[in-house]
Amino acid sequence: MEAEQIESKVINSTDEALDFWAFVEVMGHSKIAGRLTTRKLGVSVMLQVDVLKPDGTGTAYSKLYSPSALFSITPVNEDYCLKWAKQASQYDFQPVPYVAPPSRQLAQGDDDSEDSQL
Question: What are the φ and ψ backbone dihedral angles of 41, each rounded to 5 degrees?
Answer without folding.
Answer: -120, 100
